[in-house]
Write a structure and sequence with these properties.
alpha/beta, binds adenosine-5'-diphosphate, 7 helices, globular
Length: about 220
């Protein structure tokens, strides 16, 4: 579903992502592991078309996400969860995103139910806990019913209940046939959830393996 080929990103002297190639299959949760600064966010931003590669390609369903404009119908992203207007409610944010992408209002209600924000959807986003903001970010990503869910460190800073909830959601999304890609700098955070592992360090591929094979080898 996601194909990354020779993907490279340089910022001046720094090579953030270095000739990366790997694939993410539908119906699976793929863990994207590496220490802080390894190049995970940069890779995910290029997959989502939010950043242009220096070289190489990243495609979703065979198509490149055009730089700058994420087609809501094809791609889900948590990467913009921080960009909330504190005085506006979850409902307002999602309604604006739906309207801007030609999606019907019923999708807003559907995703609010899916992420369990229905009862607080009219409260200003500035009053939300981190966990609620994460849920809102995921609601935004699910709005267009995308075949792919790309989640950048979604467990960061969450309480145990939020962590359990996001893990369950990722399994559910994969069971529905979506390709789920989740980054983390902590193996223990995702090892029980992922089917496949892609490990990077200093922008380079270190391992690309099924979780079953990884467990057997370690
Ligand atoms: P990770 O998500 O794995 O923590 P990043 O993709 O954020 O890693 O960063 C990879 C490398 O690229 C780091 O060395 C980081 O400092 C550098 N980098 C990321 N974004 C930029 C940028 N906009 N300008 C310059 N360097 C950047
Ligand atoms: P534009 O490219 O003109 O800003 P878009 O409709 O592409 O308009 O996106 C509007 C905002 O919503 C952008 O910040 C974009 O990153 C964000 N966005 C788009 N699609 C998603 C998604 N699936 N999940 C989360 N945020 C998204």
């Amino acid at each position: 579903m996601i194909e990354v080929r020779g993907l490279t990103k340089r910022y001046g002297e720094v090579t953030a992502v270095d000739s990366l190639s790997f694939g993410v299959l539908p119906g699976e949760v793929t863990g994207f592991l590496g220490p802080n600064g390894a190049g995970k966010s940069t890779t995910m931003r290029m997959i989502l078309g939010l950043d242009a590669p220096t070289a190489g390609t990243a495609t979703i369903g065979g198509r490149a996400a055009a730089a700058h404009s994420v087609p809501l119908k094809a791609v889900g992203s948590l990467l913009d969860a921080g960009a909330l207007l504190p005085s506006r409610s979850a409902y307002h944010h999602l309604l604006a995103l739906a309207a801007g992408n030609g999606l019907p209002r019923r999708r807003v209600h559907a995703v609010l139910d899916e992420v369990g924000l229905g009862s607080v959807a009219r409260r200003p986003a500035g009053t939300y806990s981190l966990g609620m903001k994460q849920r809102l970010g995921i609601a935004a990503a699910l709005l267009g019913d995308p075949p792919v869910l790309v989640l950048d460190e979604p467990l960061n800073g969450l309480d145990p209940e939020g962590i359990v909830w996001i893990r369950g959601l990722m399994r559910r999304m994969a069971a529905e046939g979506r390709a789920v890609m989740v980054s983390s700098h902590l193996m223990g955070e995702v090892e029980l959830t992922v089917d496949h592992l892609v490990v990077i360090g200093r922008g380079r591929l270190i391992a690309d393996t099924s979780m079953a094979a990884f467990i057997e080898a370690n």
